[in-house]
Structure formats: structure tokens, C-alpha cells
From TrEMBL:
UniProt domain Ig-like: residue ranges: 1-119
Biased composition (Polar residues): 180-190
Entry keyword annotation includes Cytoplasm: no
Protein keywords: Disulfide bond, Glycoprotein, Immunoglobulin domain, Membrane, Signal, Transmembrane, Transmembrane helix
SUPFAM superfamilies given in the database record: Immunoglobulin (SSF48726)
Keyword hit for Disulfide bond: yes
A single cellular component GO annotation: voltage-gated sodium channel complex
Protein name: SCN4B protein
Native source species: Lophotis ruficrista
GO biological process: cardiac muscle cell action potential involved in contraction; regulation of ventricular cardiac muscle cell membrane repolarization
Amino acid sequence: PGLHVLAVALALEVSVGKTNTVMALNNSNVLLPCTFTTCIGFQDLDFTWYFNSTELIYHGKIKSKASEPLLLDRNPRVEFVGSTTGKDNNISILLKNVEFSDAGKYTCNVKNPKEKNLQHNATIFLTVVQKMVETDNTVTLIIVGVVGGLIGLLILFMLVKRVVLFIIKKIQDGKKECLVSSSGNDNTENGLAGSKAEQKAPPKA
């Protein structure tokens, strides 16, 4: 089990960045990002890009960290724009003159002989549009503002309610103390019924 955990920790990882979706204008060029990391290094690493899982659009090999990838096969409209001799092992590609038929799933696949040729991959989805539509966030901002204002008012109301209840409780406690102390004083000092002042000595026989 310990060796298995170590192998998992050293495994090569492939990433297409924070989001796996890309939008591109028809007839434009689009970058399809992909990077990989490994703790054990690599040698004769093989990487491929596939369109919709089956169509190979780029195939390259990297001899070592000190050398740039060697092109083995590619689609004429695909250009390698990454680099593996720098800090990041970047194997990104540029797809030129994007068409609507290019929309779909792109898979970046990496195979490292040092890991017994285990394969790792990451997927990115491309959407092709005629024109970019600017998102109008006015309604969203209004809704967020209204909701935020209501939450603020609710919090203010709850605070005011707690303060008012606290004041009312203090006033009521104060009245109770006054009633207790005044009733005792009045009965004793003014000689009301049941007080010590009215208790007369028993008649002599």
C-alpha cells in the first residue's frame, strides 16, 4: 500500500487550466492550452492532441527536459506554441482559421515511459460562434444590489429588535425592583394593614 501511494504521488499530471471550455470566433485563431507536471522527470515523452477522441491533429515527442518537442505528425492548421525547456512543460497548440465544424472536444494526451507508459490526459471543449455577444450584467447587478440591500435591512432590523428587547427587559426588571422595595418600605413606615406598625400589645388581664 505504501508503494502504491508513492506511485500516485509521483504520477504525471496533465492540465488545461482553470476552465476546460474555450470560445472562438469563426475564421479566427484559438489557443488550446495544455501543460503537464511530473515529480520523477521524463524521457522520450510522447504527447498527442485528438479531436473528438479519434482524429489525431498533433503528435510530438520530447526526448528530455533540455530539448524542445520533435514534431511527428500534425494537421496543417495546427501549430505548436508551447515549450518544455522553461519552467512549465507547455504543450499547447494553436488552431488556425477556426470553422464551425471545429467545435467539439479536444484531448491532450501524454505518455511517459518512466511511468511504464501510463497515459494521462486532459480535455478541453471548443465552441465556435459567429460573433462574440457582450453579456449585459445590468439586471444581474440590480438583483445582487437588491438582495444585498434586503439582507442588510434584515440584519439591521434584527440588531434593532435585540436592542429594543434588551431595553424593555431592563425597564421591566427595574420596575420589579422598585415595586419590591417600595412595598416593603410603605408597609413598614405608613402603618398599613399587616405591617409591624399596627401590631398592638395584647390586652392586660
